[in-house]
Specification:
mainly alpha; GntR_C; 2 domains; Arc Repressor Mutant, subunit A; TF_FadR/GntR_C; two-stranded antiparallel ribbon; WH_DNA-bd_sf; Four Helix Bundle (Hemerythrin (Met), subunit A); DNA-binding; transcription regulation
C-alpha cells in the first residue's frame, strides 16, 4: 500500500499530474500500477485525506495541492466559515484578476472564453452542481492567466472552499436574482485593464 501511495504522490510532485488537473480513472490506475482495485482506492483515499487529492462527485478526482503542507491549508480552509472563505477568495481572486489583465496570452483568453461559455450554459441548464463546477473552473482559469505558479497552487488547494462559497451564493436552485454576470470581468482582462479587472473581481465577493 505504501508503495502505491508513493507512486501516486510522485505523479503529483513531478508535475505529471498538475495541480488543478484530474487524475486517471480507477480502472486506468489499476492497469498502470498492476495492483488491485481496492489497493488503488485506499491509496487515493489516503491522499484525499492528506489534502493532496479531492474527489468531486460526478466529475472525478483532482489534484488540489502538490504536497501535504498545502493539503493542510486546504483542510483548514474547507472547514472555515463561509464569510472567512469569501474573504480569502477575495484576496486571491482580486489580485489574480489584476495580474491576468497584465499577463494574459491569446491561449489564456481562449480558455477564459470557453470557461465563460460553459458557465453560461451551466446556468441555463438549471443544474446547481453543474453551475458550481463551471463557475469554479472559470475562476481557476483567471488565476491560471495570472501566470503566478505559487498563487495557482495555493488557489487550487482552496478548491473545496471555493465551491462551497459558490454553492452558498446560488442556493438550492438557480434563480435569476442570484445570477452574477462575469462577462465584464473577462472583458476587463481582455482589455488589459488591471484596475477594472480587480474591481469586477471584487464586486461579487463582498461579505
Amino acid at each position: 500500500m505504501r508503495q502505491v501511495i508513493d507512486q501516486l504522490r510522485e505523479q503529483v510532485s513531478t508535475g505529471a499530474w498538475p495541480v488543478g488537473g484530474r487524475i486517471p480513472t480507477e480502472p486506468q490506475l489499476v492497469e498502470a500500477l498492476g495492483v488491485g482495485r481496492n489497493t488503488v482506492r485506499e491509496a487515493v483515499r489516503a491522499l484525499v485525506h492528506a489534502g493532496v487529492l479531492e474527489c468531486r462527485q460526478g466529475s472525478g478526482t483532482y489534484v488540489v495541492s502538490a504536497d501535504e503542507l498545502s493539503g493542510a491549508v486546504s483542510r483548514r480552509l474547507a472547514s472555515a466559515q463561509v464569510a472567512e472563505a469569501v474573504e480569502v477568495r477575495r484576496a486571491f481572486e482580486v489580485e489574480a484578476a489584476r495580474l491576468a489583465a497584465q499577463r494574459r496570452t491569446r491561449e489564456d483568453m481562449a480558455a477564459l472564453d470557453g470557461a465563460l461559455a460553459d458557465r453560461e450554459a451551466a446556468w441555463r441548464s438549471g443544474r446547481v452542481a453543474d453551475f458550481v463546477e463551471a463557475d469554479a473552473v472559470l475562476h481557476a482559469a483567471i488565476v491560471a492567466a495570472a501566470h503566478n505558479a505559487m498563487l495557482a497552487e495555493l488557489y487550487a488547494s482552496f478548491g473545496a472552499a471555493t465551491r462551497a462559497t459558490i454553492a452558498e451564493g446560488v442556493g438550492a436552485t438557480l434563480h435569476q436574482d442570484r445570477y452574477v454576470d462575469h462577462g465584464r470581468l473577462v472583458a476587463a482582462i481582455r482589455a488589459g485593464d488591471p484596475e477594472r479587472a480587480a474591481a469586477e473581481a471584487g464586486a461579487f465577493l463582498e461579505v
